[in-house]
Amino acid sequence: MARGLFRQNRLSSAVTLRLRWRTVTTQPAQLWRTMLRDALPAARKDRDTARVSALRSALSAIDNAETPDDARVDAPSSGTIAGGVVGLGAAEVARRELSDAQIRGLVRAGVDEPLTAARDFTAAGHTERAATLRAEAAVLSDLLGDV
């Protein structure tokens, strides 16, 4: 009996440690990324392809927008690999930090783009594909209302 109690206490302390060391951030991009990544497993489990596709596209849009425009690396170049640099992490460049308004703009563009494509698909007679695109746009517009 004492052994089972020990296991329970050990488990509860492990959970406490995990919660205590969880990183808390206030950067908008990280908050959005966390929200989107937390929603992704449930969408996969439900086999909701439109939701999975919309969440992945939003994550990709945020990641792509954070890439620096003109990154210069000031490190010695490698003679062995073309374009390579010497040193662990020598080619790392800081990513851009996006504001909440910029991220919302990306998600709004992610809503407008599938709706425009859905109109084109409907005009061409591909109503099933148009319905899928409208469902993806609805997922993204719901995200805008939730955050």
Would you write up a description of this structure?
The protein has a domain at 27-66 and 95-147. It has 147 residues and is mostly helical. It has 5 helices and no strands. The longest helix is centred in the last third of the chain and has 24 residues, at 100-123. Helix 3 packs across helix 4.
Number of helices: 5
Low-confidence stretches: 1-24
The N- and C-terminal alpha carbons lie at a distance of 47 Å
In percent terms, what proportion of residues is strand? under 5%
In total, the number of strands is 0
Summarize the amount of helix as a percent range: 55-70%
Tell the overall outline. elongated
The helix/strand class is: mainly alpha
Mean pLDDT: 78
The largest sheet is: none
Order of helices and strands: HHHHH
Compute the CA-based radius of gyration: 22 Å
Describe the structure in brief.
The protein is mostly helical and 147 residues long. The protein is built from five helices and no strands.
Topology overview:
Blueprint: H1 2-20, H2 28-45, H3 49-65, H4 100-123, H5 127-146
Helix pairs in contact: 2-3, 3-4, 3-5, 4-5
Any descriptors?
147 residues; mainly alpha; 5 helices; 0% strand; disordered N terminus
